[in-house]
Patatin
Amino acid sequence: MAKKIRILSLDGGGIRGIITCVILRYIEEQLQKIDNPNAKIGDYFDLIAGTSTGGLLTAILLFPDNTNNAKFSVEEALDLYAKKGNSIFNVSFWEGIINPFGLFNEKISQKNLEKQLEDVFKYLELKDLTKPCLITSYDINQRKAKLFCSHEAHSSLENFFVKDVCRATSAAPTYFEPAKIKSLYGQEFVLIDGGVFANNPALSAYAEARKIPFSEVLHDSLKPDYPDINDIILVSIGTGEVFKSYTFEKFENAGKIKWISPLIDILLSSNAETVNYLLTKIYGTLGPRNRKNYYRLMPQLKNASSDMDDTSQKNIFELIQAGLYYVDQNRNTLDEIAKKLVKNK
């Protein structure tokens, strides 16, 4: 019997990616209970897609061990976030004085981010990730999307160092400088965070999956090639709903500077909401069993900050609590996902 293609899609959201890790950790724990005590979630999906913080997580989950299986558990990914987040987003006192609120140049120095990425990924290449992936960025020079796909990186034209891919997908405007990176072929790109067009990359992941010969790529004859929507289980995880509202009075005579931050906030959340709306409609056209194979997991932030760069100990604690609350309220759904992942292994 043919197996379904299992896709995991991870939204952007800076340090709020901690919430994603908490949800994934619970699913991984269920996989360990029902299938393998050493299960790692990277081995239970056939394609993982991510934007920004979700792109970083994608690379961590698909990092290969010596046997070309997933090296890191979600617990280890969560540790990386909690420990390295503060050094990535740290803004020195002096930088704060000469560049208040990031008005005059990018809010955060990219040097800390680049150092942390080098520490984790060293010279790992995109082609060496354990499964097909889709990591988003946007080319501001060519003015088009740049998608990093491990299954297409067998050519040096499409192969990159993973640390550079992560630098590109996390180059959020107003937070980090654009990433100037080169493919292993030597072609240079100037890239920013893929959140400008796909903060929720689930629809991009579905489109990418449609053109992959999975039986060949995964060396599994039971996996369908070029799968259609009936062949796909899609799990899409957000980094917390942002309910910040904006009044007419506040923006009645607002100029460009006043609009920058709210506009980015609105673009990121509206993009994610639109993708979810479209996928809900697409899966809604299927039969009763297959329409249940789309899962949008979007927690509430509760007491956590919606800021992507708030790495205070208090906020990290609140992000973890928000994730735990979501797990507690949605245990049946998460258990169901784990069972489907094992069934289609």
Q: What stands out?
A: Residues 256-284 form the longest helix (29 residues). Residues 87-108 have pLDDT under 50 and may be disordered. The radius of gyration is 19 Å.
